[in-house]
Amino acid sequence: MIQTGLITSAHSDLLTCLAYDFYGTNIASCGLDQKIVVTTTDQSLKYEWKAHNAPITHVAWAHPEFGEVLASAGMDRTVRIWERGEEKAVLLDARGSVRQVEFAPSAFGLKVATVATDGWLRVYECLDLGKLDVWALADAVELAREVQEVQGGWAVSWCKDRYWGQVVAAVAGATDVVSIIQFSPSTSPQTVLELKLSPSSTTITTVAWAPSCGRSYHLIATGGRDGHVRIWKVNPPMLDVIDGDVDEKDKWSAQLVADFDDHARIGPLEGGVVGKVDWNVTGTILSSSGSDGRVRLWKPSLTSGGRIWRIAGSVGVEQKE
Amino acid sequence: MDTKHIELVPPLVEAGKSSDLAQSGHMVFASFSPSNNSLALHLVPLNLTGSKTSTAEQPEAVYLAGCDDVPSSERRLFIADTVVIFSMFKSMLKDAQSRDPTWLQTRQALEIIRKLSVDYVNFIKECWIHASQPISRPEPLQFSVEHYRSLYSIFSLFVVLFVPEPGYEDAPVGEELMEWLNIHFIEPSTEEGDQLSSLDHPWEDENFWSYLTRSTIRGFSKASLFFLNILLQHPSEDLQELVKILIPLVESHPRLPQFTAERDFAYASRKWKDKVKALRVEMDRFLDESYDWWDPLSDLVGILEGRGDVIERVCEELGADWKEVCAAWGIFVDTRLRRQDLPDVVADVIETMPPDPTNLEDMILSSLFSGHAKQVLKHASDFDLWLSAHLADIMEPLGLLDAELDFESGVTKRDEYVLAYAEYLRSDSTLWRITIAYLYSCGRVGEEQADEVLMRVPLSLNAATLDRSLTPSDTMAEVVKDISAICREHSRESVRRAVCKIASTMLVRSRDYGMAVSYSTSAEDWTGLGRVIDAVLDEYIQNGPVVFAGYASKIAPSMDEIQSNSRTNQIFAHRLMFTVRYSQMHETRLERDYPNAALDLLALLRDEIAPRSWWPILLCDAVEFMQYEPKLLFSSSDAIELLRKLEEISIRSSQGSGDDYLTVLIRTIKGGGEKEALERLKQVRLAIARYFARCTVGHG
Question: What family does the database annotate (chain B) (predicted)?
Answer without folding.
Answer: Belongs to the nucleoporin Nup85 family.
